[in-house]
Specification:
The protein is an alpha/beta fold and about 250 residues long. It has eleven helices and seven strands. Helices cover about 40% and strands about 15% of the residues. It has a seven-stranded mixed β-sheet, with helices on both faces.
C-alpha cells in the first residue's frame, strides 16, 4: 500500500482535480484506491457527488471513530470531508500525538488498498502535517503561471521538517504542471523554470486546460467517465502511467 499526499500551499493549482482523476485513473487500472479528503472546503467530496453527508473524516479525527469510507466504484472509495474540519486546527492544539492522528486512523485499512491519495488543504497547518506524517510520498501540482512556485521553499522546508521529526521515509515523489495552454509561449519558459528547481522530480506529463474537468466535477464524476476522449482524460491517463512507473 502506497500513501500519497497531494499538496500545494496555494489554491487554484488543480490539486483536488488531480487527486480525483489520478485516483479514478488508478481505479480504471484495477488498483484498489482510497481517496481521503482532508480539506475543509470539501471540494473532492462534492466533486465526486457526495453532498449533505452525515459522517466525515472530522468525526474520526475528533473522536477516534473508524474512517467513514464511502464506495464510488469497485476499485475507488472515498473518506469524505465536511466544513466541520474548519475548527479542527484549534481543536488539535491540545491533543497528545496530534501530528499522528491520521496515521493511526489509517492502520485500520492497512493492506486493503493499493493506493491512498490524500487531498490536502491549501494551507500548511496541522491537517497538512497529519497528511505528511501518514504519507510515503508527496505529489506537488504546480500551475503554469509565473508565481507558481512562490513560497515553494517553505513547502519543501515543511516536508523536510516532517521527515526529520516524524516520518523519515517521506519523499517528494514528483511535481507536475497543471493548467497548461500550449499556445502560450510563456508556458515553456515557466516549465523550464520549474524543471531547474525540481530537476528530475518534474514529471514529463503535464495537464492541459480543459473545460471537461470542471464540467465533470459539476456532474459529480471523474473526467474518464464524463469525457473519455478529451485532452484532460488523455493527460491524466498518461500521468497515472508515469506515477505507476516512477513511484
Amino acid at each position: 500500500m502506497k500513501t500519497i499526499a497531494v499538496i500545494n500551499h496555494k489554491g487554484g493549482t488543480g490539486k483536488t482535480t488531480s487527486t480525483l482523476n489520478i485516483g479514478a485513473g488508478l481505479a480504471r487500472l484495477q488498483k484498489k484506491t482510497l481517496l481521503i479528503d482532508i480539506d475543509p472546503q470539501s471540494n473532492l467530496t462534492e466533486g465526486l457527488g457526495f453532498r449533505d453527508i452525515t459522517h466525515s473524516i472530522y468525526d474520526s479525527i475528533k473522536n477516534d471513530a473508524p474512517l467513514p469510507i464511502e464506495t464510488i466504484s469497485e476499485y475507488l472509495h472515498i473518506v469524505p470531508s465536511s466544513l466541520d474540519l474548519l475548527g479542527s486546527e484549534i481543536e488539535l492544539v491540545s491533543r497528545l500525538g496530534r501530528e499522528t492522528i491520521l496515521k493511526r486512523l489509517l492502520k485500520a485499512v492497512e493492506g486493503k488498498y493499493d493506493y491512498i491519495l490524500i487531498d490536502c488543504a491549501p494551507a500548511l497547518g496541522m491537517l497538512t502535517v497529519n497528511a505528511l506524517v501518514a504519507a510515503d510520498t508527496v505529489l506537488i501540482p504546480l500551475e503554469a503561471e509565473y508565481f507558481a512556485y512562490r513560497g515553494i521553499d517553505r513547502l519543501v522546508s515543511i516536508i523536510s521538517d516532517v521527515r526529520t521529526h516524524y516520518n523519515e521515509n517521506l519523499t517528494i515523489g514528483g511535481v507536475f504542471v497543471t493548467k497548461i495552454n500550449p499556445r502560450r509561449v510563456i508556458t515553456e519558459q515557466i516549465t523550464e523554470s520549474i524543471k531547474k528547481y525540481f530537476n528530475d522530480k518534474l514529471f514529463d506529463t503535464s495537464i492541459r486546460i480543459n473545460v471537461a474537468l470542471v464540467e465533470a466535477q459539476l456532474k459529480g464524476i471523474d473526467v474518464f467517465e464524463y469525457a473519455p476522449a478529451s485532452n484532460a482524460a488523455v493527460d491524466y491517463a498518461n500521468l497515472v502511467d508515469e506515477i505507476l512507473v516512477k513511484l
